[in-house]
Design a protein that fits this description.
mainly alpha, two-stranded antiparallel sheet, MetI-like fold
Length: 306
């Protein structure tokens, strides 16, 4: 009797394991493919960052340990690129957040043609970065026939070469234009999730629209703002296309991703040191992504609790 009971218990405990593995087996090929496609190049980049590997002139690959990382602090070109990356991340994220919140407030009401206006406002985010860079460089910033210089001339001013004189701010303006719809969608979702009964109660109590926005709406939008800032930072810290198209990495516009390109296949051919630069960017992106995921999980938990 004891042996039979033990056998039944063994079968009962083994069945759920076998069923769970049956459900997981079809996913294993996709999981292995993802690991090979993403993690193998990453591990190889880590190995390259620990070596002194230069293609031109050809030289044998030498293991140097953490020497490439030790040279980061003394490389003023890398410091300049890092500072440019910070500017091309902070300024566009904050600018897009402010404009996105403003457009969201305007769209958070019913009016004729609301769907068309929303679609038109979302369009810049759907364009490819290369196309956006070409449009702004050739049609907006151009010194002879650019739209901005045409407006300046009509106002009595002289043409300005925006891309050559203010490369960082020109790229930042393009990024703000493209990423404002992304922030607008997040802010609009937050506005439409506000409890209507609380807003009505505040209006009945005699609160002004500005007081309602400052005391109720702004606090409600705070997690959405944090989410937009963190997600925007993750993407904008990796900007490459607009820089390549608009300035070609000229002075004042080279961020870390483009700097890595210049030090590797862009002509520097120092793959060991370039790999160490890229690993630093990846680590920074992972840290930001971890914070973003925690904020997102907290936001979703708050929505479930509500």
């Amino acid at each position: 009797m004891t042996t039979t009971t033990t056998t039944l218990r063994t079968r009962i405990t083994r069945r759920p394991l076998s069923e769970s593995w049956r459900r997981r087996l079809p996913l294993l090929p996709a999981l292995l493919f993802t690991i090979v496609l993403t993690q193998v190049p990453f591990v190889m980049s880590i190995w390259y960052s620990l070596t002194d590997w230069t293609i031109v002139p050809p030289s044998p690959r030498k293991f140097v340990g953490l020497a490439n990382y030790g040279k980061l602090a003394s490389d003023h070109f890398f410091r300049d690129a890092a500072f440019t990356s910070i500017k091309l991340t902070v300024v566009p994220v904050l600018g897009a957040l402010i404009l996105g919140a403003a457009f969201a407030l305007l769209l958070d009401r019913k009016f004729f043609g609301q769907g068309l206006v929303r679609t038109l406002l979302i369009t810049p985010f759907l364009l490819m970065p290369v196309v956006v860079g070409l449009i702004w460089k050739n049609q907006m910033f151009h010194g002879l026939y650019g739209v901005l210089n045409w407006i300046i001339e009509k106002l009595g001013g002289s043409p300005v070469e925006f891309v050559s004189r203010y490369p960082t701010w020109a790229i930042a303006l393009v990024l703000i234009w493209q990423w404002t719809p992304f922030m607008m969608l997040i802010m609009l979702a937050g506005l439409q999730s506000q409890p209507a009964d609380v807003l009505e109660a505040a209006k009945v109590d005699g609160a002004t629209p500005f007081a309602i926005f400052r005391q109720l709406t702004l606090s409600h939008l705070r997690p959405y703002m944090e989410l937009g800032i963190l997600l925007g930072t993750i993407y904008l810290i990796q900007v490459y296309d607009q820089i390549a198209v608009m300035t070609g990495g000229g002075p004042g516009s080279t961020n870390v991703p483009y700097f890595v390109f210049q030090r590797s296949i862009g002509g520097g051919w120092a793959f060991g040191r370039a790999s160490s630069y890229s690993i630093v960017v990846v680590v920074a992106s992972i840290i930001i992504a971890t914070i973003a995921l925690r904020v997102l999980s907290g936001l979703l938990k708050g929505e479930e609790a509500a």
